[in-house]
Amino acid sequence: MNPWDKTVGDDSKTVSLCLLVPAVLSIAAAWSVRRWWSNTLPLHTHAVSRRRKLNPAAGRRPPALSLIKGPVTKLEDTSAMPSGRRNISRTSSNRPPPPPPPNVLLNDDNHKSKSYGHAADSTSRVISPKHIPIPSIPQDGNFVFEINMFIFTGMTSFLQFLHLYRTVWWLPQSYTRYTMNFYLIDPYLVGFIATILGRRLVYCALSRILMSWSPSTLWPILQQLLRLILLALVLASLVWCAYHIMQNHPIVNIFYLCYPISVYFILFGLSISPFFDVTSLPPITKEECKGRTVIVKPLHNCSNSPHAIREEVEVLKTDFNNRMKQILFSSVLNAYYAGFVPCCFAQSFLYYDVYWATQHLAFVWLGCFTMYIVHCYPVKYCDVLHRAALHLGRWARIEGRTSHIPTHIWADSTLWHQGALVKHCKELYKAEGISNAAEPGNQTHARFYAVFNNPSVLLCSLLGLQLSLVIMQIVILVRSSEWYHVISLALLLFANYYTLFKLSRDYLVCWKVYKAEQMIQDKIGG
Question: Where are the bilayer-spanning segments (predicted)?
Answer without folding.
Answer: 14-33, 143-162, 182-204, 225-245, 251-276, 327-350, 356-377, 457-477, 483-501
